[in-house]
Design goal:
By secondary structure, the protein is of the alpha/beta class. It is globular. Pfam families: Glyco_transf_4, Glycos_transf_1. This is Glycosyltransferase family 4 protein. InterPro entries: Glyco_trans_1, Glyco_trans_4-like_N, Glycosyltransferase_grp1.
Length: about 375
């Protein structure tokens, strides 16, 4: 049995929530008995190929929620000796680091996932670094989402090399099926899409500024931003930038299911101008794969592990982070060249066609 412990899970959206969900489904597809321990967020509990173990929590990293996570760890060690405990995101890792002296992990195979940002935070802080060094002897497998994240981990802890497994994200089979038959759109509007939480690192403001500086005749542009704002200050900053944009900017909030698929279906170009941030790292980006599966050409900033998720010059244009002129030129190029958009979109579909979560996790079980 493998117990996945996470604060980031359905119905929450975002890269880590998607990673945790698809990892659970892929492991179950290999015949593993999976139990997912996660917060009891409001909403229906869908039928899945794993068992649910929901507990009361806001899904935060506040002290009371970290305490709730350690109670799940303690229960797992007591009731399921020999069963794998898989931590798929930073909150349960932080909880374990704080409370590890209360646990007997000697009979519990422990697998930990790192996504990038938490590694940067832990290794730059001596308090967390010491606790990681104390915990690592009890960890059987370390999962990272990209070669970039693996490098971050091994630069800080080179002795862990033999225990590191790269499990890159993939596109779910349901997502691929939703875009198997391209939808024909009418009208001359060119729709540009970003899907990411509202955060300075995600670069929505940079895209708005780039669009504001573009003056093209006979082009009807529309920019849609999909994603929630967990901090209202960032939302207000984005709203202020949109007021100066000559083209309509639609702030849709978080979307799921068919609404999210519709946003991709209606789009012509996907763009995410991620910005460098030592405390918050773009270590891969599942959304780039989702855009590729939807047949969209991608414009992305060349930060972190983004170039592992796209193919520069094939399905994407990579621009230097913070280079407003390069971002503007990439947008103009794709706006003015429908054949290039179609060619790059087709290349993206081909790129992700044979990529699957089930294949990616196989090495973890060997």
């Amino acid at each position: 049995m493998i117990r996945i412990l996470t604060n980031e899970f359905f119905p929450r959206t975002g890269g880590i929530a998607t990673y945790s969900l698809e990892l659970a489904k892929a492991l179950a597809a290999h015949g593993q008995k999976i139990v997912v321990s996660c917060p009891d967020f409001p909403g229906p509990v869908p039928r899945m190929p794993f068992a649910w173990d929901r507990f009361k929590s806001r899904g935060s990293q506040d002290p009371d929620d970290l305490w709730r996570l350690q109670r799940v760890v303690k229960r797992h060690c007591r009731e399921s000796p020999g069963a794998v405990l898989l931590l798929t995101e930073p909150a349960p890792v932080r909880s374990l680091l704080l409370f590890q002296r209360f646990f007997d992990l000697s009979r519990t195979p422990l697998w930990i996932t790192f996504h990038g940002s938490e590694l940067s935070q832990f290794t730059r802080n001596n308090f967390w670094r010491k606790r990681l060094l104390k915990l690592f002897p009890s960890v059987d497998r370390l999962i990272v989402n990209s070669a970039f994240t693996r490098t971050l981990l091994l630069e800080a802890f080179p002795d862990l090399k033999e225990r590191v497994h790269i499990i890159p994200p993939a596109v779910s089979e349901e997502w691929k099926k939703a875009f198997a038959i391209p939808e024909k759109r009418s009208g001359d509007e060119i729709r540009i899409l970003t899907v990411a939480r509202i955060h300075p690192r995600k670069g929505q403001v940079e895209v708005v500024k780039a669009l504001s500086s573009i003056q093209l005749k006979n082009h009807n542009l529309h920019y849609q931003v999909v994603g929630d704002a967990r901090r209202s200050l960032w939302q207000k900053h984005l709203e202020a930038a949109t007021s100066a944009c000559p083209y309509p900017v639609e702030l849709s909030g978080a979307l799921q299911g068919e609404d999210l698929q519709r946003a991709f279906s209606n789009a012509d170009i996907f763009v995410m101008a991620s910005q460098p941030d030592p405390a918050s790292i773009e270590s891969f980006g599942i959304v780039y794969l989702e855009a590729a599966a939807a047949g969209l050409p991608v414009i992305a900033a060349d930060v972190g592990g983004v170039r592992e998720a796209v193919r520069d010059g094939e399905n994407a244009i990579l621009v230097p982070p913070g280079d407003a002129k390069a971002l503007q030129e990439a947008l103009i190029l794709l706006i003015q060249d429908p054949e290039m958009r179609q060619r790059m979109g087709a290349a993206g579909k081909a790129l992700v066609a044979d990529c699957s979560w089930k294949a990616n996790v196989r090495g973890l079980l060997e």
